[in-house]
Amino acid sequence: MAKRDFYDVLGVARDADEKALKSAYRKQAMKYHPDRNPDDAEAEAKFKEANEAYDTLKDPQKRAAYDRFGHAAFESGGFGGGGTGAHDFGSTMSDIFEEFFGMGGGGGRRSGGRERGADLRYNLDVTLEEAFNGKTVEIEVPTSVTCDTCSGSGAKPGTSPTTCRTCGGAGRVRAAQGFFTLERTCPTCQGRGQVISDPCTSCSGTGRKTQERTLSVNIPAGIEDGTRIRIAGEGEAGVRGGPSGDLYIFVSIRPHELFQRDGADLYCRVPISLTTAALGGQFDVPTVDGKTSRVKVPEGTQTGKQFRLRSKGMPIMRSTQMGDMYIQVTVETPTNLTRRQRELLAEFEKESSGETHPESAGFFSKVKDFIDNL
Ligand SMILES: [Zn+2]
Ligand SMILES: [Zn+2]
Question: What ligand has the least distance to the C-alpha of 157?
Fold first, then answer.
């Protein structure tokens, strides 16, 4: 089944602000909450759908990616992938329910205290040239890894955790409160179901340690500003044997001195002299591949005229094609004239007519008509 648009799911406009999103989400969540709709698979699906939509749209980064790429932004594998698909809905549920009821949503997410590690975000700046060529970068990621002394159990080697007596090992306690039956995390074992009486000294019983790791990341040629690269399993280690989170690399491309980028095309403004514009000529422009290209300027070129250099733009990802480069010329009015130059221009002026300046001639004749008709 095709995935529904997240804005349609929540029933909000595409420019809805945070408040509108939250209130739309609340409505849906209350309506389709499984506690209110027991054994209703359709309601459950709607509840999950609303959760996923809200989870994406409440995060400005994810929302921007969604606006740009749609659901494709979150398909796993490949570039720009990641995120919401794999995200279990525990996190959104618990923050929103904490807000509704003043207590955690709990849920069966933690079994035996296992918990998925957090996702990590790494911001990477690259130059336009690097984005053009593609490159492999080594990045240092501070992350928590499984403690090797206790293999992540948190218990001192040779000892083992004991079952929590408060919850009997379930990690959760239940309490009926009006309409809902609320489950919450066991306060004694914090949901682990087990208590460590003799903690591992190396990690103080957390089962994790912080470490800097070096990762090699391939930045593909043609990458765009704002792309997220997901590296599965390279986020923080899970708690007590839970799976690791993912690492997301957010790529920003630094502004370039000469070139502006629009998708795969590049734009460059070049000033040319009055004489080159009038008489014609040529100039060389640098291109992003480090070479130069020659641009021929025909006689009578005006400011704003655009020249296209085919395939001199950025690589188009997942293809062998290249974007184009556009050169926009601006005719520079000469300044700081010498006496001789003034004379020459004054002489030139005397020779000028409507033929030499058809655009001005046309404009001023329109002005004259306008005034005559007043
Ligand atoms: Zn340990
Ligand atoms: Zn417990």
Answer: 1
Report the separation in Å between the CA atom of 20 and the middle of ligand 1, taken as the mean of its atom positions: 45
**Ligand 2: centre distance to CA 297 (Å):** 79
Give residue-wise pLDDT tens across range 60-114. 878 887 787 777 766 543 333 333 333 333 333 333 333 333 333 333 344 456 7
Question: 111 CA to middle of ligand 2, Å?
Answer: 11
Handedness of CA 125, 129, 135, 138 (dihedral sign): negative
Ligand 1 centroid to Cα of residue 318, in Å, is 44
pTM: 0.55
Distance CA 352, CA 38 (A): 87
Distance between CA atoms of residues 119 and 131, nearest Å: 25
255 or 237: which leads in pLDDT: 255
CB 67 within 8 A of CB 55: no
Ligand of minimum distance to the alpha carbon of 204: 1
Label residue 331 by pLDDT band (50, 70, 90). Answer: very high
Q: What is the 240 CA–ligand 1 centroid distance (Å)?
A: 10
- Tell me what pLDDT residue 348 has: 93
